[in-house]
Design goal:
Blueprint: E1 2-7, E2 13-19, H1 34-46, H2 50-53, E3 59-62, E4 65-73, E5 78-82, E6 88-92, E7 96-98, H3 100-103
Antiparallel strand pairs: 1-2, 3-4, 3-7, 4-5, 5-6
Amino acid sequence: MKAIRGYDVQGITTDWVAGCYNCFFQSSHFWKSKKACIEDMDRLVSLFPPIMRVWPGDEVLWGTDPVTVLDKDMQCGELMVINSQGNKYIIEQHVIEKWPWELKQKGGDNGR
């Protein structure tokens, strides 16, 4: 999802809209500023299920252990993860204690 500039029929730049170039999904709101558009985009994406927002390379907290996401199966709701010892596991999404955006919040476990 990105902030995308809208254009009228004469090709003149108009308002901002939150959208995706790959799937053509976009919010129904138009904003006068890019900042307001990005805030709307963040709010919209936060409504998606967590497994749709996590990507390979992201770190999640499984129990008390941080693990790195290698792959995901959205249909089954499973993640393939690897721990710091190099062990790989397939885990269900409901056992994740903290998602990447929760770890990055103030007071999260990875406030490094």
